[in-house]
Design goal:
homodimer, Arc Repressor Mutant, subunit A, alpha+beta, 4-stranded antiparallel sheet, DNA-binding, Jelly Rolls
DNA sequence: CCCGCACCTTGATCTGTATCAAGTCTTAGC
DNA sequence: GCTAAGACTTGATACAGATCAAGGTGCGGG
């Protein structure tokens, strides 16, 4: 279908031994590479190798729309974008995923969207067959997945409101606040928010063009609501006013 | 917050005895008003009054955004619209629900959107507490809900693509094909598709204005792709070309 | 330290859709 | 059938954001 970049291939996480403790998978809590002790203790034995870990570099494709959906992923580090394309290449990014988010929930036979790493990304991967077994034994985990899916649905509807009815300025303000909220909840300190994706990605997420996104950033800066810092950092100088803009005209 | 219409109140379905068999609830399969025999037979006794039936008239509010979410609903007849509002009244309809669809899946403490009947609508209603019990006993049903939620997520992403990247003509073509698909799957014969919602609702669903929707219908008519019939019926004269338009430029 | 390239910003202009403003059609109630 | 009111269509005009076109800027590699 499309031209855009993106290599494939799984690059198995070399049991890279940095000092920092590896981030835990939301689903199974595993930190090590091979041993997965599922969350609920109800009679479940620790399961080896139900989950595998993989690392993707920026721009690398995780999967493409239409491919048989073999895995459910949990993002344990980094940022992922998921998107859909029209035949002529127009792209809509339907979400950015951060640490703790699930990827591939949609449970159709094939993926209904493509996924690509924005930054270096670590994923915890579950084969669908094995996952089903696991869920069978752990209704509690299934609960959790249902709740998560419901939550994502609510977010999708919020985004529809943005795409259908908000102005460029409202969209950008909403986006910055979203990043800030997510950074906080992921544990990163924030105030200067890290914006890991480029203008094109932001534009394709907000249903705008890069130029409009850029102009809108400039406008917000001139109004003193944000400050653009080096290293893709943005300071939300007047969070209150941004918030007012995001939800109203 | 907003001005718009909408009475409240549950009008309990008077055990209205028309000749036709009442439509079955997707979740529990119940057709009668009070007795609900859940789908899976695994040791489950028939449960009285887990599900109740209610009828809503056109324009009647089913629930409002922000209200405590007490029920999960299954639409057994009619059409429902769900929507979100901005403070100044701009509205985005995030979905139309038809026979068989679920309403209120999002499982937050309060509803994250409002729901209103488009046509006379029959709902099968489950109190959340009772539903949880039911699900606890029937993992199979929970499976099903998870699959449904996943499916809705996929649809939401498709709609984001529409709202973010499609032209007015592409949106209207997509919409007509959606209605046609749903009518077929709900069992209604179609070819002339019934369009039960008015131009304002269509506009608020497609992120357009009534005028643009109207002009686009006219254009499609002039190009011979559709025919506008009485009684809100629309004939899709050239489904192939409509389909081409819907997915591409 | 400098270079090159990708990314970002800014400017000029264009255009699809919104907005404003009349009509015209449909339909339900009488 | 007639009529009124809402729903729909059509036209004229405006404008937010797209498109086209240059520059700037920052950063990684030599």
């Amino acid at each position: 279908m499309k031209a855009r970049t993106g290599q494939r291939e799984f690059s198995v996480a070399s049991g890279d031994n940095d000092a920092a403790i590896p981030p835990a998978c939301t689903l199974c809590g595993v930190r090590s590479l091979t041993v997965c002790a599922p969350l609920d203790n109800a009679g479940l034995t620790a399961v080896d190798e139900i989950a595998t870990r993989h690392t993707f570099e920026p721009g690398q494709t995780i999967f493409d729309e239409g491919e048989p959906s073999q895995h459910l992923f949990n993002v344990t580090d980094g940022t992922v974008k998921i998107y859909k394309l029209l035949a002529d290449g127009r792209r809509q990014i339907t979400g950015f995923l951060f640490s703790g988010d699930f990827l591939g929930l949609a449970s159709e036979a094939t993926y209904t969207y493509s996924a690509e790493a924005v930054t270096t990304t670590k994923l915890c991967c579950f084969r669908h067959g094995q996952l089903d077994e696991l869920l069978q034994r752990s209704p509690q985990m299934e609960r959790r997945l249902l709740a998560i899916a419901g939550h994502e649905l609510a977010e999708a509807q919020e985004q529809m409101l943005l795409l259908g009815r908000k102005t460029a300025k409202e969209r950008v303000a909403s986006f910055l606040l979203l990043l800030s909220r997510r950074a906080k909840q992921t544990g990163r300190s924030e105030d200067p928010v890290h914006v890991p994706m480029n203008r094109t990605d932001i534009a394709d997420y907000l249903g705008l063009t890069t130029e409009t996104v850029s102009r809108t950033f400039t406008k917000l800066k001139l109004e003193g609501l944000i400050r653009l810092l080096p290293k893709s950092m943005v300071a939300l100088a007047d969070r209150q006013q941004l918030s007012d803009i995001a939800e109203t005209s």
